Amino acid sequence: MEKVKIGCVGTGGMANSHLSRLATLENAEIIALCDISEERVSSAVATYGGVAYTNAKKMINETDLDAVYFCLPPFAHSEIEKVAAENGLHIFVEKPVAIDLDHGLSVVEATDKSGVISGVGYQGRYQNAENALKEFLTDKTIGMIACHRWGGIAGGPEHWWRVMAKSGGMLHEQATHQVDMIRYLAGEITEVYKIDSMRINIDQENHTIPDAEVVTLQFESGAVGYITTTSALVRGGGSMRTDFILENHMVLQLGWGNFSIVPEGAVTVEVPDTPQISVDEAFINAIQANDQSIVKSSYADGLRSALVSICANQSAIEGKPIQIPTVP
Ligand SMILES: NC(=O)c1ccc[n+]([C@@H]2O[C@H](COP(=O)([O-])OP(=O)(O)OC[C@H]3O[C@@H](n4cnc5c(N)ncnc54)[C@H](O)[C@@H]3O)[C@@H](O)[C@H]2O)c1
Question: 143 and 59 in one domain?
Answer without folding.
Answer: no
